[in-house]
Amino acid sequence: MMDMGTDRVTLKIPRPLYEKIKIVIEGSGFSSANEFVVYVLRDLLSVTGTAKKDLSSEEVEAIRKRLENLGYF
Length: 73
Prior knowledge:
Elements: H1 15-25, H2 33-48, H3 57-69
C-alpha cells in the first residue's frame, strides 16, 4: 500500500471555492483547506467503494450532487 503522506500531487481549484472552504473550516478542527478536501474526497470514495473501476450512472450522479452541495459546481 502506498504511503499517502509522501506521495502527493497538486490539484487546482477555483479561488472562490478555496475561499469558501477556508470559511467552512474555521473552528472545525481542520488545519487547512487541503486537509478538508482530502477528508471529503476520501468520504466520497468510501461511499462508492474503491474496488470498482467503472461507476454506474447513478453513482456518478450521486457524486456530482455531493460535489455540487459542497460548492464545486
